[in-house]
Amino acid sequence: MKKHRYVGLDVHKESISIAVAEAGRRGEVRDYGRVGGSLIAVERALRKLKQSEGDKEVLLHCVYEAGPCGFVLYRRLKQIGIDCAVVAPSLIPRKPGERIKTNRRDAIKLARSHRAGDLTPVRVPDARDEAIRDLCRARTDAVRDQRRSRQQLKALLLRLGYRYTGKSSWTEAHLRYLRELEMSHPAQKAVLEEYLIAISQAGERIARLSTQIELHVASWRMKGAVEALMAMRGIQLIAATVLISELGDLRRFAHPRQLMDYLGLVSREESTGDRQHRGAITKCGNTHARWFLIECAQHYALPPKVSKELSKRQEHQSQGIKQLSWKAQIRLHRRFFALMQRGLCRQKVVVAVARELSGFIWALLRQVPLDLGNHGSPNPSS
Q1: Residues 6+ positions from 69 with CB-CB distance below 8 Å
Q2: What is the pTM of this model?
């Protein structure tokens, strides 16, 4: 005979609060206590909970919220044979009248909700896939640092009355102009030099990380999916790697609308009775993937064309992938033009095109065979 216990873990850096819900609709839900934040402390506590009671074998079902502590605990519990799930914090049911939040209460709520089946698990990536994702996010951090330093430098020059009259910024001519600027005070010249150094260092970081991404993708199990995605217009190595590392296997989405919802590209809706109201996009889900997808969607403002670079990227792809890429170009360019003719602002048009582009990506990646193995929950809502 087996006895089931549902364990809620409120995980923090230094401590983990544990609550236990016994099986059954009216089973007891109790606070078990708090342990240290190390894996050894958690294993010791769970080992005590797993001790058999008479002839019954105790099975534990653990759950904790996705957060800054990552998936180390999840992988360790799976390794020692304990069922575990990581859930989305934004989808945990909350009562409108709740005004008290503590670690103990959060653990009890997790245990009770897990027993009731009210929690939505997230997709836990494979450790190798997570490493590639960390590399891509590090490059994005470097890009943001460079952009921030450039904005700060431009704000300084505008405040001091300097205006660059060249055609475009951050070219060799523009950088030469910045280096040769004469300031009225040595302190301002020092600030200018510091900003230029910060911009240069960020650019070097971007180049190094881009090289590392190219190097590691060559031996990645998702290399085939990256190369297939590069057959689409506007999606090159960096964008394809980011999208694959963030989204994983898209076959867990039964319909492209689920992918659009996951990316936060669908409209908010507040409808009741005969009244329907749709607002801006939800912006739920994966922010990083949504940002890259919107950047890629801007290429479809141009007329359909298979350029020399795109033709080279499609060289070893199947005829079905090439046809789908061309179909996407025709469809999305027509959509872009039609929405612009209706007088919509360009930002809304780009988001609408990005939403449809995600559907084409879903269809394309379902044609690519992947070496999946066991890589976490296939829940499409994750």
Answers
A1: 11, 12, 13, 37
A2: 0.89
Domain locations in the chain as residue ranges = 2-116, 127-217, 223-365
Among 100, 98, 97, 73, residue whose Cα is nearest residue 87:
73
Degrees (nearest 5) of the Cα angle 187, 190, 193? Answer: 155
Cα→Cα distances 290→97, 138, 210, 248, 262, Å: 33, 17, 20, 14, 9
Pick the CATH number of 2-116 from 3.40.50.150, 3.30.420.140, 2.120.10.30, 3.30.160.40: 3.30.420.140
How close are the terminal C-alpha atoms of the chain, in Å?
33
Residue written as token pair 């990646």: 365
**Contacts of 55 by beta carbon, 8 Å cutoff, 6+ apart:** 1
DSSP structure class, residue 95: -
What are the beta bridge partners of residue 169?
none
Q: Following DSSP, what letter does each residue of 333-353 receive, concatenated?
A: HHHHHHHHHTT--HHHHHHHH
Q: What is the residue type of 155?
A: A
pLDDT single digits (tens) 323-342: 999 999 999 999 999 999 99
User: How does pLDDT run across 235-251, given as a tens digit for each residue?
Assistant: 999 999 999 999 998 98
Q: What is the DSSP letter of 295?
A: H
- Whole-number pLDDT of residue 25: 80
